[in-house]
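Deliverable D5.2: sample structural annotation.
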Amino acid sequence: MIQRIQSIYMILVAAIAGGLTFVLNLYTLENEVEVFAKDEPLYLGLFMASAVIALITIFLFKNRKLQFVLNRFNILFNLILLGIFVYRMLNLSGEVGKISEKGIGVILPIISIVLLVLANRAIKKDEDLVKSVDRLR
C-alpha cells in the first residue's frame, strides 16, 4: 500500500540513505579531499542497512507492529551513524590557517530520523484506528 503516508516517508528515507549518500560529501579533509560515504565502509554499511530496512518495511504494511519495530531499529542505525559522525567531526582538526569543512551529508541521518519518527507516528495512528473499529464489531 504505497498510498499510505508512512510508505512515502519510508521511500524518502530509502532515497536519502541509499542515493544521496553518493552525491553529498560528508566532510572535506585538510588537503581538500572530499570524503563520501562510499569511501568509508562503516558509513556505507550503515547507510545501506538503513535504506534496505526502509525498503523492507514498506512492504510489511499488513504487519504494522513489525513495521513499527523495524522502523525503530532503523532509527537506532541512524542514531549510531549520527554518533559516529559527531565523534569524527570532533576529531577533525581545525588548523589556524585552514579550517576543515563539514559537508552537508552529515545531516542525512537527522533527516532520516525525523522521517522515520513521522512514519512511526502514522503507523501508530493506523493501528489505533484498526483497534477502534475492532471494538465496534
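Annotation notes: The longest strand covers residues 27-28. The CA atoms of residues 26 and 105 lie 4 Å apart.
The annotation will be released with the project's public dataset once the embargo ends.
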